[in-house]
Amino acid sequence: MLNLDHVKTELEKYQYSYHQNILVGHTKSKIKWVLPTGIGNILAFEQATAYLFGFQEKGVDFFPVTGDWKIASHLLIPWEDVISFRMKQGILENEMRIQTNSVNIVMKINKIVANNPWVKENINYLKENNYFYKGA
Fold first, then answer.
1. Is residue 15 part of a domain?
2. Is residue 37 part of a domain?
3. pLDDT in tens, 61-110
4. 21, 8 in Cβ contact below 8 A?
5. End-to-end CA distance of the chain
6. DSSP E strand stretches across the chain
7. pTM of the prediction?
């Protein structure tokens, strides 16, 4: 179950400090295939992977999580490797785009999560602080 205490406990396993710098999101879903039928179309989507995203002075941290919100691993993308960082505002979700010399990442960021007001509070905090982005 996703809650702030659980998130903090999981982050401690990676010696990662929580300071309203964590967001919840997932990979951007893509259509895998379309089956036309007489009435309409049936769409199959690639399975999305859930993530916790951390923002700090060093860069953006990616924490892929399992179905029970346990952190599976950790990846840091340092700000000095980031060519472009953009957070596009959406109605239900924001879209985060990070481009480096080697990869272009597009992720969805949840704006709200039921029974987790800290998610919205963190978005507002990070937005006020420009997501810690120190680039040009």
1. yes
2. yes
3. 999 999 899 999 999 999 999 999 999 999 989 999 999 998 999 999 99
4. no
5. 39
6. 22-27, 31-36, 41-45, 50-55, 59-64, 75-78, 82-88, 93-100, 104-110
7. 0.84
* CATH code (residue 38): 2.30.29
Q: What pLDDT sits at residue 130?
A: 86
Considering the domain boundaries, does residue 136 fall inside one?
no
DSSP string, 60-91: EEEEEB-TTS-B---EEEEGGGEEEEEEE--S
Structural domain of 29 = 4-130
Please state the domain count of the chain: 1
Task: Name the nearest CA neighbour of 21 among 99, 127, 106, 107.
Answer: 127
63/72 Cα distance (integer angstroms):
7
